[in-house]
Amino acid sequence: MNAAEHTLEEAVAAFDFGAPVAEVKRYGSGHVNDTFRVRTRPPHDRRFILQRISAAAFKRPDQVMANVIGVTEYLGEKIRAAGGDRTRETLEVIRPRSGAGYYTDSLGGAWRVFPFIRNAHCFQSARTPELFAASGRAFGRFQRLLDGYPAGTLYETIPRFHDTEDRLAKLKEAVAADPLGRAKDCGPEIAFALARERDCSAALDALRAGKLPLRVTHNDTKLDNVLIDEITGEGICVIDLDTVMPGLSINDFGDSIRFGANHCSEDETDLSRVALDLDLFSVYTGAFLEGTGGALTDNEVAYLPWGARLMTLECGMRFLTDYLTGDSYFRIDRPGQNLDRTRTQFKLARDMEDHWDEMGAIVARAAG
Ligand code: ADP
Ligand code: GN1
Ligand code: MG
Q1: Whose C-alpha in 225, 261, 270, 271 is 20 to 30 A from the C-alpha of 346?
Q2: Nearest protein CA to atom 7 of ligand 1, as residue
Q3: Which of 164, 62, 181, 157 is nearest to 111 (CA)?
Q4: 329 C-beta closer than 6 A to ligand 1
Q5: Cα-atom radius of gyration of the chain, to the nearest Å?
Q6: Report field, pTM of the whole predicted structure over 0.90
């Protein structure tokens, strides 16, 4: 048994699943945490999500879990008060036998368990406009539900997470250090990012000028971070709460557009297939605004296209930095995958620049 298998076994033993465990299987397509589905033996067939929190991404799992517990308990109360089903509409942390918020294995890995939400699915692409709209309503509603959450109690689990200026600075450092000699393979991509230095300040300047407010936001709003109910087709539960922090509403909007308003996978190698779909952009805009329930200010609405452009540029820069420094952050299944991901993001970012006026007009129309 190797070390990874051993710590997985330790983690399974650390939790009480209410019945003997029958199966533990790697699950999902997340790039960051290690996720497993646990099933107990029939006749119970209880299901759980068991996750090792990424040590590369999160230096303080205790703070991550304090945030996740605080937010899920708050959401649970709100959902119950509104007559909803708190077992399906929010995650709930299941504590290890020790009673702590998570379990630490013999190598220092941090593990947590959530109930597996059944009869709901995560999607890698917006197969239908309705699906994309459902995710938009769910992420907008998520932001609205957390409107009154005491932001000062949240830890910054990844410092400067959506600080696009800092992401560019980190890319420059990686290019200068070039530890693996990979910079020579990505000259055009590096040049693309460097040419957009001014853009990197667009939202941060607005924040500093008091034009955009800080809110409690999700910060990782890609389509596969919302579970879609298989009967109703609605976005039943927003998951992946590790980066819930004070942030910009436009980034939550923008990250969803980056990932979902196209018809390609994030690592598509045929760039001719990579394009912004303005109809999907329009559908998401209306649904997100509906979900936020009119809470956004006029400036936030006006800056929504910037959210899309910046999240796309920033994500490309993050993939490129990870490619240059050895793929230690985003999980890869093949060599060069983070460079392919960079290329799709930059192609989409360029498309957004080319359709800038149309994006603005669509947002203005949706805001009515
Ligand atoms: P990562 O940070 O690596 O993206 P996630 O928390 O998003 O990790 O989980 C990865 C995947 O596991 C999700 O995309 C989803 O498919 C699945 N998943 C996570 N939590 C649940 C849950 N409570 N019920 C059902 N599926 C889940
Ligand atoms: C990661 O964890 P996951 O796979 O949902 C990343 C996001 C990126 C995304 C790109 C904590 O999301 O910021 O936008 O990959 N999450 C973290 O697909 O870094
Ligand atoms: Mg995820």
Answers
A1: 225
A2: 240
A3: 62
A4: no
A5: 20
A6: yes
